[in-house]
Structures are given as structure tokens and as C-alpha cells.
Amino acid sequence: YDVAFRGDGWLELDRSVMMHEEEREVLGFEISTNKSNGLIMWHGQTPNDLTPDDYIAVAVVDGYVEYQYNLGSGPAVIRVTAQRVNDGERHRIILKRQGSDGSIELNGEHTESGVSDGLQQILNARGSVYLGGLPDYAMAYGRYHDGFSGCIYTLEVQDSGAIDIGEKAIRGVNVSPCTRVRWIPSSLVFTDAEAGGFDAYVPPPPVNIIHPKPASNLAAYDMTSYSLLIILQNLIALTRDIKEQSVLFTLLCVDAVNVLNGLLS
Questions:
Q1: 8 Å CB contact between 147 and 4
Q2: What is the pLDDT of residues 36-54, one digit of tens each?
Q3: How many structural domains compose the chain?
Q4: CB burial readout 167-197, b (16+ within 10 A) else e
Q5: What is the pTM of this model?
Q6: Which of 16, 97, 172, 243 has its C-alpha lying 20 to 30 A from 124's C-alpha?
């Protein structure tokens, strides 16, 4: 599920990973790096089509995470500058786009938004999806020049959960797993995973970045607590009503006895 790069590699995935057909698109990544620049993901046109056109990209630029997309009339360039990501720590990135409006969320704490130029609302990317870099940076129309150095622990698209990156891989160069437990699809070309700094054991990724389970469990817990509170309040009210009715019945009995005594006397 995870892949490591050292700045001189790339991994090509089948374009079916990102069809961009949903009205509201959501992508999730978990990464770590200690470099100031590097292309994390690119999805644009085929290598033979170098005319600037529709694309979507996420990269580390000057130590900050940057989200770009172009629907054909001009790009939206959205960067989170509240926190650097080139500190070697794991960072969660969520990209959202609805038509020309987009946003990037970093670690659930920092969010920036932007809008692409023109009236177009649909992203039409016909090429493969690339992680960690490109075989030819002319494909990025001069916007990016550096490969990613670090680890991509998790990739999610919409409600996919963590995607098995190895299963979707077509080919790659200078790619290795982040952990010592290896998956080695026959279509990939790997370097020595033991030679770098990103192949040490790390905890497994969360089940879901875009919709993390702990949040769902917490919501369920809060709803259960709220329901129990309502039941308790109703029981207290019922008990109070019973007490009040008992007092009223006693008073009525006393009044009835007094009336009878008056009649008999």
C-alpha cells in the first residue's frame, strides 16, 4: 500500500484510479519527507500531448504542500503556508474539488481554498496517474521539476479507503516500499530498499483518511450518551409526576373525609 522515493523515481498507475467523474472529488494522502521540493502526484495528459491542458497535481514546494488543478482555462494554485511538511513527520493531506472550486486540508488543522480560471467545471485528464515524479517533466508544462523524496503511506480516492498501490501499478523506476515488509509486483523496477532512510518500520496507516473510523466511533458514542441522557431525564420527570400525583391523591382523600365528617355531624 505504501511507496518510497528518493527524488529520482516515479510510479505509473492506471488512470482508472482517478476518473474525475464525481461531482464532488476528494483525494487523500499521507506522506513524510525531509526535502523542500518534490512532486507527490500528477495526473494530466499522455506523454505525447505536451499542450498545456487539464491536469491535477499535489507537490511539496519550498517546504509547503501545494495543490494545483487546471480545467482548461487556467490553474488554481492553492498552498498551505501555516505548516511546513518537510520535517520528516507524517502529514495527512485531503484535496477537495467541486467544479472550479477547490480546497486543501492539512492534518485536519489548516485549510486553504481557491478557484480555477474560466467557466469549465469538468477535469478531463486522459493520461496515467503518476506518483513521486514523472518520466519526463515536460509533461508538467514546466510547473514542476523535482521528484519526491520520502514516503507516500496512503492514497485514497473518494470512499475507496487505502488503495493497494502495487495492484494499480503499471511500471515504475527507483521505487521501494516504505516498510521492510515488501510487495514486489513484477511490473516494477526497484532499487535496494535497505539503502535509504525511509524503509524503517512504521505503524500501519489508518483504515481511512478521508472518513477516519475514530471520528465515526466518537460520533456513535456521543449519540448513545445523548440518548441515555434523554431516557434518564424522562425517568426523572415521570418519577416527579408520580410523586406529585400521590400528594394530590392524598389531599383529595383528606378533603373527602372532612366532607363526610361534616355530613355525618
A1: no
A2: 999 999 999 988 887 778 9
A3: 2
A4: ebbeebbbbbbbbeeeeebeebebbebeebe
A5: 0.70
A6: 172
223: in domain: no
Cβ atoms within 10 Å of 215's Cβ, excluding its own: 11
Cα–Cα dist 70/258, whole Å:
91
Owner of C-alpha cell 507527490: 40
| Residue 79 CB contacts under 8 Å (≥ 6 apart), including other chains | 61, 64, 65, 66, 67, 104, 112
The tens digit of pLDDT for each residue in 80-123 reads 999 999 999 999 999 999 999 999 999 999 999 999 998 889 99
Structural domain harbouring 85: 3-177
Q: How high is the pLDDT of residue 209?
A: 75
Average pLDDT over residues 173-193: 60
Q: What are phi and psi of 186, to 5 degrees?
A: -65, -15
Grid coordinates of 17: 484510479
- Tell me: do 60 and 159 sit in the same domain: yes
